[in-house]
Design brief:
551 residues; FAD/NAD(P)-binding domain; 3 domains; 8-stranded mixed beta sheet; 7-stranded mixed beta sheet
Amino acid sequence: MKRTGKRYRTGRAADHYDVIVIGSGIGGLTNAALLSKLGKKVCVLEQHYTAGGFTHTYENGGYEWDVGVHYIGDVHKPHSPLRRIFDVITDGQLKWSPMDECYDRIIIEDREYDFRVGREQFKSMLKERFPEEAEAIDEYVRLVDKVSQSMRSFFFGQATSPVIGKLHRSLRRFLVPKECTMTVREVLESLTSNQELIGVLTGQWGDYGMVPSEGTFLMHASVAKHYFAGGNYPVGGSWKISETIIPVIRASGGEVFTYAKVDEIVVENGRACGVRLENGDVLRADKIVSSVGARMTYNKLLPEAERRKHRYEEKLETVKPSGSSLCLFMGFKGSARDLNLPKTNLWIYPSANHEGNVEKFQADRNSEFPLVYISFPSAKDPEWEQHYPGKSTVQAITMAPYEWFEKWSGTTWKQRGEDYEALKEELTQRLLKVLYKHMPQLEGALDFCELATPLSTEWFHLYDRGEIYGLDHDPGRFDQDWLHPVSPVKGLYMTGQDVVTAGVGGALMAGLLTTGAMVGLKEFGKVNRMLKEWQPVGETTAAMRGITQSG
């Protein structure tokens, strides 16, 4: 079993830490590793049997799948901010492998649109298919770049004190493009009336979980730009992310504990000073960081008196959890080469009307899936064959309202009864039908499959609505000044995707910004120097100097 972290038992933890981080998602691990680089002794507490949050891998039936890391952009470039952060927090031990030149294939009905590496190839494909929309396509790419480049200004306040952050927020509309806080549909319909083109341009909406009329263009632009240069996959699988970060945390005397569920944040004299675990143990630290999301932190872990004092019940009514999903984990007999599996992701839609597709599905479970995302993790990992010769894995993901499964909420995993299993089987067969339509060579080679529902997410990650992207990324969410790394409770901080944006990249940046907000400008300057001066293995000093100057 590929498990990372050390199983918690009473007596294994130190009496006191500089920092305790609740949750071992990538935001929490990034924050813990950067603080460790500054000499802090950090304890990370994870309730699951393995560390990593949505970066861990799931094993069953002799196969292994990633649960949340399907592809990551920009990390193949040594000078990119994401790559530099990953290199620093792993001491350069995490390696990446590029996907196919076509990283995403958008399929609308039977029409295919290949998103290929590079802006010019991306634009050329679109102009070939939509020749009358050349001007709109150029303007779209320009806007994506413009809005993405403004993200540093947009989130500057997250690395500062709440007072400066609030001032920055009041001035932000003068510092960033107006498109940042418009919906995706508002921006795109200002460029074109061609609904097929809009459907194609928003064909990656599953990466942030919101249809064009609801999602914020800032979120959309960050995803689109993130993949313009292609997609990459962690060599050895996504579990390598936590495996390579944990030694950095341990090097400063810290530890990452699993089976360590936190029941409550201990607050004494108005200051967070520790945590109480499910077994009753109390661990203490100078500072506490929560990486488990705003809803869980402020609705469950914070003592009730503190919740009332800081009016968190009212604040949480201004945001909503993101959507939930189904994920079908499949294992096939035969290697990726034998089965002709691509490294390209498939995004399959019944029509270009994403909002209409979702509305139909929510109203009638038997209507077509509004999207099906298909990924081929074994084909993406160059080390897969060393560990699983003659086998391949595939995942099919779609949305699923939590309400469909709510009557089984609170039941035990694998013990939810015949009705639940019958529903899972029905949905499994429908997802297999979609897969075989587009990959007919796989029919007959299936060896194992298991469907994860929103209740699986609730059970393993403790998100009470089965959400996968934390809070929804609608424009109103970005107006909430309380979604800041520094909480009003002294000594309590937040990190993870609710602090910045969804996905590995967003949570990674949140870990960086939270670190800045915790340590102040002088110490954060040391972090910036680490990132600037990091030299990838194999790069000469002169070559690296050139990259730094040009980057």
